[in-house]
Specification:
Ribosomal Protein S8, Chain: A, domain 1, SH3 type barrels, five-stranded antiparallel β-sheet, 22 helices, 31% helix, flat, Tudor domain-containing protein
């Protein structure tokens, strides 16, 4: 990468510089709308104008916190371009200026032989993909040199080139007449590309002119011979890992505890009970040192930490204990940082916190907004202090609550928890087979769920005040060995008052007037109306219900909460009949749709989802009611879009003054391609809502495109314009006989039909008859899941 220094200083705002990155790197930077150039600007604090000839004009901004300077911008540009092919970058720094001192660079050590290739990927593909996924961060392999070392290396390279030059009188080797054997020659004369040589094995052989490429130095053959390289070993110092020769003649791992005169005292690592030993220097050898390369990570704090965590995990996967044996210290700060937490019982339940294909790990991280990896038996967590604390709390719950039933929600998780009471009969529906339904909902919403037992409160006690009188019809408790406690209708015959304030009631059982019993008044209760009886059953059921604790971000919790309520309400109608959240404009809340019941029933599921995506509002059915969750603006848009969807051609006014609507005027001859199916496909692809509003006075049609996201609306309009201008497709579909003009005609009654055809009895028509309950059940299913295929 060539550089050209301009006049303006590199640490003053407004400095300029020109860097030649080459045409290939320039084209790569300009791909996808120059998104990589925008990324460079965010990371470097400088503007970049990339030209197709490979020149990049850099313009500095405000210089501060290491960002914005010329040196920093050029270093970031060099690193970004190196990502394309995975090449190693040489960073030149003044003596004493280390990359680790920069707030915008992290350094990760990678074992050269065992892990570098895996971390890099083929041609640097893995680091490139990781840099694209993480966001505002890039990671490259770096060779760091001081300016003095670079100057010395350059001089050495020049000297080597001079030594390598072919000179008259040099003894070299050449292939004789294009054969396979090399013979010694003496250089007689040298030109730009050719030399004249004399074969030394026979002075009578005439001189010969050869190409420089046909020669080699004699020592090259010796250098080419394979040499066994002795690995570098750790120095014998206190704390060093070594191998010692034990008394049985075998070598074992140990740590140096003291260095004596001509001897070394070591502690054997294979068994703590074995006492220390003093060994001679000949019986001790330092363990081979691991050659390492460095990966530099540029970016903001969170992105750098996330990428560092991913790379550390890659390294540990290839070189076990390289990272886990030297765990980093947890950060004690409110902002972004690392927390390193050991898994319980030395990772006994590690598989449980990982989950199938890492599903549990991903759900924990998504619910808490953190990054999570397991390195050895340690949990490495990246995030703010609150995010790290929540992640650690959920990890502890999973490892300490094997059944998943909580007694209480930990205080640190209360702010990210919602509780939904689930009817006992609906528990299997919410769970699904082997928790499949709940797992699927967690994956879709990015939440985690635990069960919590509900304590019975007085408000849940289904007691109705009772004043007993003779002749009153009541319910009496009867207990049998087979069926346990049951309640049966009875008539009060006599009330006996005891001295201790307790009463007994003599009753006659309705199912058998000849059978009479005396019951304590606590075993007698009022005979309820149908409505009262239903309410009592609900209260009794809810007293034994469980609460589902949903953990995650507020929006995702609201979605999961409504999904669960919908499942419960389908199984046990009326469970949430009293659910009436109060909506206001204070923030993210849930409210019921303002549509009439019949209007809500007429909105199919796919339309509801389209409107939810366009308005960025959660819309979910609970029983026959649609509930909306979002901010005040999101809910307002969703309510309006839902209302319009119930109209054949809504009248939309003041579209010019709204920032959520674009209008496309379509002439009559362009309507043919804009079918409902085509509009639906555009809606799904762009997350917008499109419909024809009332026609304009001139007879043209107004196609209204709605959505909170301006870019998505623009994309939808572009697709619709392209669609209406496309040539009409020919109908090549094979038609059935009845699709043609006379397809529905009864040919047996036609003139000229044969007598046999005319006299044939009419075909019987099968009519399926359903009860009103079946029809209602089918209607609800169609609304929720769509028509059967």
């Amino acid at each position: 990468m060539a550089e050209e220094e301009l006049e303006v200083a590199g640490n003053e705002p407004g400095w300029t510089s020109e860097v030649d990155v080459g045409t290939a790197d320039a084209a790569w930077l300009l791909e996808d709308g120059a998104r990589r150039v925008a990324k460079f600007t965010r990371l470097a604090g400088a503007e970049a104008k990339v030209q197709e000839d490979g020149k990049v004009q850099l313009v500095g901004g405000e210089v501060g916190d290491g960002l914005g300077s010329r040196a920093w911008a050029e270093e970031v540009l060099q690193a970004l371009c190196a990502l394309r092919t995975g090449r190693c970058v040489t960073i030149l720094r003044p003596l004493g200026d280390k990359a680790t001192s920069s707030p915008s660079v992290s350094v990760v050590e990678v074992p050269s032989e065992d892990a570098k290739g895996y971390v890099m990927g083929k041609g640097g593909e893995r680091l490139l993909k990781l840099s694209e996924e993480v966001g505002d961060a890039i990671a490259v392999l770096v060779e760091e040199k001081s300016a003095a070392a670079a100057e010395s290396a350059e001089k050495e390279e020049v000297a080597n080139e001079e030594d390598a030059a072919v000179k008259v009188g040099d003894l070299m080797e050449a292939l004789y007449q294009g054969g396979k054997r090399w013979f010694e020659v003496r250089i007689e004369s040298v030109t730009d590309e050719k030399v004249k040589v004399k074969w030394t094995y026979d002075e009578d052989v005439p001189e010969e002119e050869l190409l420089l490429t046909d020669l080699r130095r004699k020592e090259e053959m010796q250098d080419a011979a394979p040499k066994k390289k002795e690995p570098a070993r750790q120095a014998l110092e206190v704390g060093a890992a070594v191998e010692g020769l034990y008394s049985n003649g075998k070598w074992f791992e140990a740590h140096v505890t003291a260095v004596l005169d001509g001897k070394v005292r070591v502690k054997w690592t294979y068994d703590d009970a074995v006492p220390e030993s003093e060994l001679t220097l000949a019986d001790v050898k330092g363990k081979p040192t691991v050659e390492i390369d460095k990966v530099f990570i540029y970016g903001d704090d969170r992105a750098r930490m996330t990428m560092e965590l991913k790379i550390l995990n890659f390294v540990e996967m290839k070189v076990k204990d390289f990272v886990a044996s030297k765990p980093r210290v947890s950060d004690d700060c409110e902002g972004n940082g690392f927390s390193v937490i050991p898994l319980l019982n030395d990772g006994e339940l590690k598989a449980k916190v990982i989950g199938k294909k890492g599903s549990v790990r991903l759900k924990i991280a998504k619910a808490c907004g953190s990054e999570l990896e397991y390195i050895g038996n340690l949990a490495y967590i990246v995030g703010t202090q609150a995010e790290r604390a929540r992640t650690a709390a959920i990890l502890e719950l999973i490892q300490t609550v094997p059944t998943g039933d909580l007694d209480s929600v930990p205080e640190v998780l209360e702010a990210m928890a919602s509780l939904v009471t689930v009817h006992p009969e609906a528990l299997p529906v919410v769970m699904g087979k082997q928790r499949a339904t709940l797992n699927s909902m967690e994956d879709e919403t990015g939440t985690m769920c635990f069960w919590k037992n509900n304590p019975v409160t007085e408000s849940q006690t289904p007691e109705v005040e009772l004043a007993l009188t003779v002749g009153m019809t009541v319910e009496g408790e009867f207990e049998s060995k087979k069926k346990g406690v049951e309640w049966f209708e009875a008539t009060v015959l006599e009330i006996k008052h005891g001295e201790d304030g307790k009463h007994t009631v003599k009753v006659e059982w309705t199912y058998d007037p000849d059978e009479k019993s005396e019951l304590p008044d606590s075993d007698v209760r009022k005979m309820l109306t149908v409505a009262e009886h239903k309410k009592r059953e609900q209260l009794e059921a809810m007293a034994s219900a469980k609460s589902l604790v949903i953990l995650g971000p507020q929006r995702m919790r609201a979605l999961a909460e409504l999904r669960v309520m919908g499942l419960v309400e389908d199984k046990c109608p009326g469970t949430y009949a009293s659910f009436a959240p109060i909506a206001d404009d204070s923030g993210f809340v849930t409210e019921a749709s303002t549509l009439a019941d019949e209007e809500q029933k007429g909105i199919p599921e796919h339309r509801r989802k389209t409107i939810g995506a366009a308005s960025n509002c959660i819309i979910e059915p609970v029983g026959d009611t649609l509930y909306l969750a979002g901010s005040f603006a999101e809910r307002a848009l969703a309510q309006e879009y839902l209302k319009w969807s119930t109209m054949e051609k809504p009248s939309v006014q003041n579209t010019e003054a709204r920032d959520d609507i674009d209008v496309l005027v379509v002439t009559k001859d362009k309507l043919v391609n804009l079918t409902p199916r085509a509009l639906g496909q555009v809606e799904e692809e762009t997350e917008t809502v499109a419909f024809f509003a009332a026609d304009t006075p001139g007879g043209d049609s107004r196609l209204v495109v709605c959505g909170a996201d301006e870019a998505k609306r623009a994309s939808a309009v572009a697709k619709l314009v392209q669609l209406q201008e496309a040539p009409q497709e020919q109908d090549t579909k094979k038609r059935k006989w009845e699709d043609w003009g006379d397809g529905g005609k009864d040919w047996s009654k036609a003139d000229g039909a044969s007598k046999e055809l005319q006299s044939a009895p009419p075909k019987k028509t099968k009519v399926l008859v359903f009860s009103s309950e079946d029809e209602e059940r089918r209607r609800k299913r169609a609304e929720r899941f769509g028509p059967r295929p």
